[in-house]
Amino acid sequence: GFSSSAAASAAIKNVTVIGGGLMGSGVAQVAAQAGQKVTLVDVNEKVLGKAKDSIAANLGRVAKKKFKDAPADGEKFVAGALANLSTNTDACEAAKSADLVLEAIVEDLKVKHKLFSSLDAVAPAHAIFASNTSSLSIEEISKAAPKRKENFGGLHFFNPVPVMKLLEVIRTPFTSDETYNAMMEWGKALGKVPITCRDTPGFVVNRLLVPYLAEAVRLVERGDASARDVDIAMKLGAGYPMGPFELADYVGLDTTKFILDGWAKKFPDQPLFKPIKLLNEKVAQGKFGVKTGEGFYNYK
Ligand code: CAA
Ligand code: NAD
């Protein structure tokens, strides 16, 4: 017979992804590619237009590789995935038919609370709510949706979403087994490798990665080596695809600082989360990394 987890996972067919930026558009792409019906939501209509363009371009890239010798099949694959995707600027309307609502909006607890509280009132009772937050507590976010304490968890993807295989599945103390199993199965259906995490700051990857990036900046700040040499060291000596400064520029120095500052406030005794002068200076100068054309490196 069917286990309850299989029944629950079979139920996730309609996904509403809220936030059409870098992460949301990536998640929408991989879900649509995997045959899910996806509605991508953003408050900004222009963002949705840009997201559709980048998803179409990325799907073309995937098709070119996957259907190297059968371009007609590649075109079918792209058209099929795009047909699974729609957009909306009204989150509440989009959530009405969702089995899963995944939030990937700004990293701001108040804004996330406002969104989830309005969705809690209108989404179907069975719908699972999940956040893609990098650094906030899932349980704290879930407080805005009291109706679905048990149907709430974290689904944390990595940038670039179509390439990075990992999915962190986060359980709060209230997440039901059924919800957890459905999230794990959904991740696998998307072609990701899900791991299980408790609801702790940064879960697994960011809890290790952010302090590592911070330590790299501190090392350079002390004058122990240059940023360029540290990057060479970690690529050639530890096999990382990017050095810590390339990666910090890629993730965004503003984002890195924002995560550290949030944790430092919450955990003032943790030396790994302490503010860093060199990082703060870069951010104060508007040097956020790749997205602004300059960070530790120049991209102009
Ligand atoms: N979308 C779709 N496909 C992409 C892509 C994108 N944005 N970027 C790269 N690709 C594809 C390419 O088409 C290419 O595919 P094939 O090899 O199959 O042809 C493949 O990915 C590799 O790309 P490139 O050859 O252009 O470049 P690369 O080999 O240098 O790899 C990289 C690029 C995958 C980004 C690699 O450098 C890498 O893994 N870097 C580390 C990324 C990382 O650590 N991400 C996590 C950041 S932390 C985070 O996300 C969590 C958080 O909460 C902040
Ligand atoms: P982004 O700025 O690229 O996109 C966020 C989008 O959300 C914007 O387009 C904005 O218009 C939209 N938005 C804001 N408030 C909204 C609302 N109330 N309703 C609907 N749309 C709204 O951000 P991003 O980098 O995609 O990050 C999104 C989330 O994912 C954050 O919580 C972040 O911490 C997390 N995350 C980011 C990364 C990364 O590397 N950038 C990796 C993993 C997780």
Fold and architecture overview:
The structure is a single chain. This protein is of the alpha/beta class and about 300 residues long. The chain has two domains: about 200 residues, NAD(P)-binding Rossmann-like Domain (Rossmann fold, 3-Layer(aba) Sandwich); about 90 residues, Orthogonal Bundle (N-(1-d-carboxylethyl)-l-norvaline Dehydrogenase, domain 2). It is built from 13 helices and eight strands. Strands 3-2-1-4-5-6-7-8 form an eight-stranded mixed beta sheet. Helix 2 links the parallel strand 1 and strand 2. Helix 1 crosses helix 8. It is globular. The N terminus is likely disordered. The structure holds acetoacetyl-coenzyme A and nicotinamide-adenine-dinucleotide. Nicotinamide-adenine-dinucleotide binds next to helix 2 and helix 6. This is 3-hydroxyacyl-CoA dehydrogenase. It catalyses: a (3S)-3-hydroxyacyl-CoA + NAD(+) = a 3-oxoacyl-CoA + NADH + H(+). InterPro entries: 3-OHacyl-CoA_DH (IPR022694), 3-OHacyl-CoA_DH_CS (IPR006180), 3-OHacyl-CoA_DH_NAD-bd (IPR006176), 3HC_DH_C (IPR006108), 6-PGluconate_DH-like_C_sf (IPR008927), 6PGD_dom2 (IPR013328), Mito_3-hydroxyacyl-CoA_DH (IPR052242), NAD(P)-bd_dom_sf (IPR036291).
